[in-house]
Design goal:
Cobalt-precorrin-4 Transmethylase, domain 1; alpha/beta; 2 domains; single chain; globular
Length: 248
């Protein structure tokens, strides 16, 4: 069997219990780079770890090769875990891998993960919805710039949606995304935030407005993996207790 496991946004403790149990039962783990990889060091010496990382503008294992590895190990009678960051069905190509396994007669199981689209903002105290501020959230990929012919995002509609906008994989394209959202009618003063390495030891953030966030993030040295949040909620942060504490 191949078990598709979402490892959560990166911190070891944010994997689900079921996801951790699947890792502990595995004979082979085919791992992406954004999952909680420290957990792999806790597995037994018999477990084969396969690095299937896709590094931005760097080395990357082709998707067809990953599919073939999953099928090969499963057909050899091994318990295989496909280990991904976040949730494997949120920009994770998870269903593509299920389809390949099904075509080869390999049974599969899915263990959902905590998506970085929501956990990343939460790590800096930003709720993607908030009573009185927004009744929805739109999650979009920023991997392709808005003017790319292969982009499937209607950025003008996103700008008019009235929802919180969460952009994944959009560090390099953030200036163009901010411009197209402003052109679509979203005010330049709309609060915005970017968080990188959310929940990890290297976590850092940048705050600003739609007009300034791209420059502020660049000045702060923000690099992937990072998440941008645009909307009224981006002005929020974790509340701090009042000085002096509660009184009797």
């Amino acid at each position: 069997m191949v078990t598709l496991v979402g490892g959560g946004p990166g911190a070891d403790g944010l994997i689900t219990v079921d996801g951790l149990l699947a890792l502990q039962r595995a004979d082979v783990v085919v791992a992406d780079r954004l999952g909680p990889l420290d957990l792999l060091a806790q597995l037994g010496p018999h477990v084969e770890i396969v690095d299937a990382a896709k590094n931005p503008r760097g080395s990357a294992m082709p998707q067809d090769k990953i599919n073939d590895l999953l099928i090969e190990h499963a057909l050899a009678g091994r318990e295989v875990v496909r280990f991904k960051g976040g949730d494997p069905f949120v920009f994770g190509r998870g269903h593509e891998e299920l389809e390949a396994c099904a075509a080869a007669g390999v049974p599969t199981r899915v263990v959902p993960g905590v998506s970085s689209a929501f956990a990343g903002p939460a790590a800096i105290g930003v709720p993607v919805t908030h009573r009185g501020a927004t009744h929805g959230v739109t999650v979009v990929s920023g991997h392709l710039p808005p003017d790319h012919p292969n982009s499937l995002v209607d950025w003008s509609a996103v700008a008019r949606s009235g929802t919180t906008i969460v952009v994944l994989m959009g560090v390099a394209t953030l200036p163009a995304i901010a411009d197209v959202l402003r052109a679509g009618g979203l005010p330049a003063t709309t609060p915005a935030a970017v968080v990188a390495d959310a929940g990890g030891r290297a976590q850092r953030e940048a705050r600003g407005t739609l007009a300034t966030i791209a420059g502020t993030a660049a000045d702060a040295g923000i690099a992937p993996p990072a998440i941008a949040v645009i909307g009224a909620v981006a002005a929020l942060s974790t509340p701090r207790p009042a000085e002096g504490g509660a009184s009797a």
